[in-house]
Amino acid sequence: MILKKLNGEQFKALVTNGAKNLRANFQEVDELNVFPVPDGDTGTNMSRTIEGGVRAIENSSENSIGLLGKDLSKGMLMSARGNSGVILSQIFRGICKGLAEKDEVNAVELGEAYKVGVKQAYGAVVTPVEGTILTVFREATEAACKAINKDSTINEFFEAHLKQAAVTLKKTKELLPVLKEANVIDSGGCGYVYIVKGIVKYLDGEKIEAELSLPEEAKEEGAPVDFSAFSSDDVLQFGYCTEFIMRLQNSKVDVESFDVQKVIDDLNEDDIKGDSIVALKDDDVVKVHVHTKEPGIVLHKMRKYGEFLTIKIENMALQHNETMSEEEAQSKKQMEHKKYAIVAVAQGEGICAQFKEFGVDVIVSGNQTMNPSTEDFITAFKSLNADNIIVFPNNKNIVMAAEQAAKLYKGANVVVIHCVSIPQCFSALTMLDFSSDDLTIILGNFNEAIRHVVSAEITTAIRSTKVNGVIIHKGDHIGIVDGKMTISSPFKNRIVLDLLRKIPNIKDKEVVTLIYGDGITEEEKQKNLENIQRALPFLEVGAIDGGQKVYKYLIAID
């Protein structure tokens, strides 16, 4: 297929084939992890992100590349997870900005849109690092734009783009010392190359047959309705969970300056009496969630602003008798209004229970191998009735998705704490005190606690390598301290104590908290406590059954 110009329908086909090619190879990308631990997630995150965009356009008949691009961008933005996924969503957000107002583009115009993608992606990262997906995308775009002219085809643009992307991907190993030492290429760049390969394959006549993953929250289609949950004698108690996506209309409002607070004010009026109200505006699209006994009035009022793209109305009496999501459970309880609320990312029954005891209002399910998406955070935010929401991402690969959600959410002031580990969060939550009623002081206390805690993790190496000067053999027990590989040892019963001995200024520390992972035996727990108390008697040792996967031990040293 030779294309001189690219329209919306063709663009959808190219992106879909790119997403399918990544889905077919995402596990290989996951395995490109600098640290040899079983928590690689880059391929999973990027795949989930682009698939969210594909789902947003898969049933679209839109032939304008500009309008289709808007929907693709929104879908990827909300589905973005992990740093790689957020960057990928920003790459495509920029590309789609460059395509705006166009029905079709030639190769030169496509190249200009890709340049906007470069600017958008670099601007989204506080400190851009060369040798990552950013470098791969930028150099591929620069090379493709130089290789084409007004007579070039879309095929020639993507072929040149792919050729340079592959070259730069190999070069990432030399650009980043940590990649060179571990002898791996950049995983995010690799994921991007698979997407472009899928695009080029489609242009060469090869459609990828890989099945895209289903949304995690998707329910079985055609599931039977529980008619017993609401009988002919029942009285409507819970109302209707009403959700819709509406496109604002220029004939009805000034789309560019439209304030979504107008929608919120309408939903709060006496004839609706909405609860759990959330309204988000993204360009000309407004997404609304509200609980009300008058969904008909809601829909009637909203049409003064635009027209609906999707509508979902469910009797909450049926949901009331089902296993409820975190969002619905919190909505049912109608949480009291708070000035401050806490959202924390966690996995492991023990960790989640402890966080709740400390005062966390909502737990966002997530861990190293399954990072929550931007939309997961927004769902958590909208379950709260608070003026200020403080977020603990608890993983460096989750921070960007949390920050992206904070920027999109307008229902409260959302602050993302730069907390990148569970031990850091434990330490910070011990300082939970809202009595000052001063957000600056509250955040200062959290950050001070995080600054003083040393965070360590222990797991098992899945391959032999060398990281941070530490020689690692497959099957070794390895310890990571504050994000740096610190120790590798074949001795299971000594690894915790040996790691603690490597903590700088350990004699200045007072408390060690061991958070045991899934599968640690009572014998191992007791052995660790005895070893530490005997060798480091100045430390007070505590233990928590965290139940987390992947990491056998999470350790907080204060």
Task: Describe the protein.
- By secondary structure, the chain is of the alpha+beta class.
- It has 4 domains: 5-203, Serine Threonine Protein Phosphatase 5, Tetratricopeptide repeat; 239-315, ACT domain (Alpha-Beta Plaits), CATH 3.30.70; 326-452, Rossmann fold; 454-557, 2-Layer Sandwich (Hypothetical Protein Tm841, Chain: A,domain 3).
- 45% of the residues lie in helices and 20% in strands.
- The chain contains 20 helices and 18 strands.
- The chain has helices spanning 8-30, 42-57, 65-79, 82-99, 107-124, 133-147, 154-175, 177-182, 187-203, 261-267, 295-302, 316-320, 326-333, 349-358, 374-382, 399-408, 422-429, 439-452, 495-501, 522-535, and strands at residues 5-7, 104-106, 240-248, 275-282, 285-292, 306-315, 338-346, 362-365, 386-392, 413-416, 454-460, 465-467, 470-472, 477-481, 484-489, 511-517, 540-548, 553-557.
- The protein has a 6-stranded mixed sheet with strand order 15-14-11-18-16-17, sandwiched between helices. Strands 4-5-3-6 form a 4-stranded antiparallel sheet. It has a 4-stranded parallel sheet with strand order 8-7-9-10, sandwiched between helices.
- Helix 1 (8-30) packs parallel to helix 3 (65-79), helix 1 crosses helix 9 (187-203) and helix 6 (133-147) runs antiparallel to helix 7.
- It is globular.
- The model is unreliable at 217-228 and 319-334 (pLDDT under 50).
